[in-house]
Amino acid sequence: MTAKDKLDKPLLQARTSEELLARKPRKPTAAECCGGGCAVCVNDIYAQELAIWEDECMRELQYGPGNRGSQQGPAISPDYYKSFVLQNIRKMTECCSKYTFAIDDFGCLGYGVGQHLIMRASVDGEIVTRQYTPVSHPSALTLGTLLYIMQVYPKGKMSKYIKTLKEGCSVEWRGPLGGLDYKPNTHKRMLLLAAGTGIAPMVQVLRHITSMEEDYTMVRLLFGTAKYRDIYLKDELDELKHFWNVSILYCLSDENSRTPVNEQADLLLVLT
């Protein structure tokens, strides 16, 4: 039995600082779970977050209020949160920006294909977590940077926090989690579907396939956005199109979207 098991939870909460108590994760309501057997269920994430919070409480009891001990080890872990400094914010569209975080000591996260990280923040007194897939190129990771594209929504809880982010502030992350069990040449052809910032894991897959000379899988990506200007990471996607086994079609839903004439061969207007 661990020390955590021996300590009564009400006593644990009573002896923990108000700041940490306020960070206790909220249990999802029944309406927040679709019941579809998702690979990453909101209830699973809640159980993980609760275990992490209890561990943080135990460390505070051990090291004293406001001092939860140092987290030694890898640059990041799926078992606890670490803070990363936001180095740069580059606006991509009206509601989407690219965020660059610094990795301590120019470390490498070493995440796999399709893996994501979880960001944690306090919004109006409630702890909110969201999953984001990095778009960092492996070579960029060796330089100690972590890149994300994040979109803000008018009524989004995490969006409210993202809007407040400034260069130099610290943001909590943990991971990597999830991932794809991809094996070269398992299938002759693959069809990838993405919309908006959902392009992030697809870019990881395309990079992985094109990095292996002996992978002959033919890949077709359909990327849906409203306007031409909303095609995120287009420069890199256009580079990936140069590989013999990759083809990409951009699907736009706004019939008034202005597109360059030389790009129209790779565009499809989808009217809804």
UniProtKB/TrEMBL annotation:
Lineage: superkingdom: Eukaryota
InterPro entries associated with the record: CBR-like, Cbr1-like_FAD-bd_dom, FAD-bd_FR_type, Flavoprot_Pyr_Nucl_cyt_Rdtase, FNR_nucleotide-bd, Oxidoreductase-like_N, OxRdtase_FAD/NAD-bd, Riboflavin_synthase-like_b-brl
Pfam families cross-referenced by the UniProt entry: FAD_binding_6 (PF00970), NAD_binding_1 (PF00175), Oxidored-like (PF09791)
Residues holding FAD: R130, Y132, I149, K157, M158, S159
EC number: 1.6.2.2
GO molecular function: cytochrome-b5 reductase activity, acting on NADH
Catalyzed chemical reaction(s): 2 Fe(III)-[cytochrome b5] + NADH = 2 Fe(II)-[cytochrome b5] + NAD(+) + H(+)
Cofactors (names): FAD
Name this protein carries in UniProt: NADH-cytochrome b5 reductase
Keywords noted in UniProt: FAD, Flavoprotein, NAD, Oxidoreductase
Assigned protein family: Belongs to the flavoprotein pyridine nucleotide cytochrome reductase family.
Organism whose genome encodes this protein: Rhipicephalus sanguineus
Domain FAD-binding FR-type, first and last residues per copy: 78-183
